[in-house]
Amino acid sequence: MKRIPSLDGLRCISILLVIIGHSRFNLYGINIANLGVRIFFVISSFLIIGLLLNDLERNRFSIKRFYFKRIMRTFPAFYFYLFFTGAFLYSINIFEWEQFWRSIFYIENYHPRNNWTKVQWFVGHSWSLAVEEQFYIISSLIFILLQKNLLQKKSLNKIFYFTIIISPLLRVSYIFFKECLPDFLILSNGRSFETVADALAIGGIIVLNKDKIKSFRIFKYLCKNIIYCVLLIILVELLRSYLIPEEYSFKLKVVYNLFGQTVGNIMIGIIILDVIEFEPKTSIVSKLLNNKLSIKIGLLSYSIYLWQQVWLYNWEIHLVYKYFGIIFSALVSYYMIERPFLNFRDKISNKYLS
To answer: pTM, whole model, 2 decimals?
Structure first.
């Protein structure tokens, strides 16, 4: 299959940010792992909305094919991870069903924080997978309405723009009215679907408005000076750094959730569109994203994301051994689970669901 240039390289950067963040390196209090996940969200939306639009325009949109392909892409490796990890934790007598059951049903992003124990760590990262699955359900329902002419294509833009407005407002409301929230929403900022949906909406807007965005002067300027996008993302993330004096921390937390996170997501979207559509193959950025190592890590990124969690627990082993464990587990997961199911998916999809 033809692969989109630089996309695996972007996945490589995303997963490395997650690993660095989960390795507990002190980066001035920046939640670098969450930043890596948000890059995944924008990439995912860019791809999924683009694929669905392409199918719709060619009159070949099929909800059966869509769900089948998504299930074969995500379920096998994830449930293999859950089974192995659950069995391992049970064998050392620290398994807790209360911490695990939400991940099985892709609702870990609504796991009340006051219910967490240390064991929650092993499935804590599945909050982002829950967001992805919820996004698949919502986006597919929207495209069913489009297919049946119950919704106009131009309404997609309105939905995405509305999401970019409402998601930050919800994040801030959760800060100010946390006493009124049900348990499953307390401290859910950056995890629950509605508080991260603007990252997904930005990916959709990019796909729908590529040509218009390309004509903007500011976009052309940022493409020529992509380092400014990176610096702005870092500056935004520093708004919640421990370096901020305590008397300003709450105000800047509000600013970050109301404006900063969305601005950072927009910069991520600009970078993605630039490296995929504009960056010359001879540029340093393009060479970095498309070298063999970056592509390989990008291909393994889903399996790496799953297995880094169990290895980066606070086991009393050297970090280097943990990294070797992540690589080994990801290779086993990719070649024994993920890749065979992807081949099966393509075979069935092309033969029976085309």
So the answer is: 0.95
